[in-house]
Specification:
The chain is α+β, with helices and mostly antiparallel strands. It contains nine helices and six strands, in the order E-E-E-E-E-E-H-H-H-H-H-H-H-H-H. Strand 2 and strand 3 form a beta hairpin. Helix 1 packs antiparallel against helix 2. It folds into two domains: 139 residues, Jelly Rolls, CATH 2.60.120; 100 residues, Arc Repressor Mutant, subunit A (Orthogonal Bundle). The longest helix is centred in the middle third of the chain and has 20 residues. It is 44% helix and 25% strand. Strands 1, 2, 3, 4, 5 and 6 form a six-stranded antiparallel sheet that branches.
Length: 251
């Protein structure tokens, strides 16, 4: 999810308060990301692969270059449009606020700041957006080593995910369970497979190394757990939406 990055590099392009009634329209691959808080809404968003219902108090991240169709009898929201250089996905990510009043206060704060355009307002808005990311993280993040049946395996993953020879069977043994049962519990806990979890850690590590500017892409692939650069490139593009070389150029 977008809020799981330690730091998201971004450039705010616009902040808008929108109010629609009985509306429907298509969006075709906009070249910016959107993060929104819906105050009152019954919006339905359809992409080529999924359909989403974004109701009151939902926070949604819509990535750049994603085409979708939106319809709603009412849709009142505040949305931040921004560029990002170190996070990309091909699908909409969303959740419902457990404390919506805190989110609404921050989204209104960034909107008013952007509208007033006082000296240094872009710095202030960037700080508020970071507050929003932090609140998203605080609501959704589980402690990394929360005591569950698979805790030993989680610790093993975080220490060894850069090892290209690591296997799910080996990881499952750390929690004294079969691979099949481990996969089941892991998916229930984190919503994705353990292999995808490992891949995400590897690609986030690679993105950070690219951002440092100190290593070649071949070196970064090996330092992130990939012996095969072509496979690394395929995985990087699947997760980040662009190839490693294009990511390097954009960064």
């Amino acid at each position: 999810m977008f809020y799981e990055n330690d730091i998201i590099n971004f450039n705010i392009l616009d902040v808008l308060e929108l109010k629609y009634k009985n509306s429907s329209h298509n969006n075709y691959g906009r070249n910016f990301n959107a993060l929104s808080f819906r105050i009152r809404s019954d919006a339905r968003i359809k992409t080529s692969e999924n359909e989403y219902e974004l109701c009151d108090n939902s926070i949604a991240y819509i990535p750049a270059r994603l085409s979708y169709y939106r319809e709603a009898s009412r849709d009142e929201l505040i949305v931040v449009h921004f560029d990002s250089t170190n996070y990309s996905t091909k699908s909409i990510e969303y959740f419902y606020a457990a404390e919506p009043e805190k989110f609404e206060a921050l989204f209104r704060k960034i909107y008013l700041c952007w509208e007033e355009k006082a000296p240094g307002y872009k710095y202030t808005c960037s700080a508020i957006l970071n507050e929003i990311f932090a609140l998203c993280y605080a609501q959704n993040h589980r402690e990394k080593y929360e005591k569950t049946k698979i805790q030993p395996s989680l610790e093993f993953i975080t220490k060894n995910y850069k090892n290209p020879d690591i296997t799910i069977g080996e990881i499952a043994k750390k929690s004294f369970m079969s691979e099949v049962y481990f996969r089941k519990l892991f998916k229930e806990e984190y919503g994705i497979s353990p292999q995808k979890f490992i891949t995400n850690l590897r690609i986030q590590n690679a993105a950070g190394l690219i951002s440092s500017g100190y290593y070649s892409l071949g070196e970064i692939a090996k330092m992130s757990g990939y012996n095969d650069y072509k496979y690394f490139s395929v995985e990087f593009k699947r997760v980040m939406g662009v190839s490693p070389s294009k990511y390097t150029y954009n960064y």
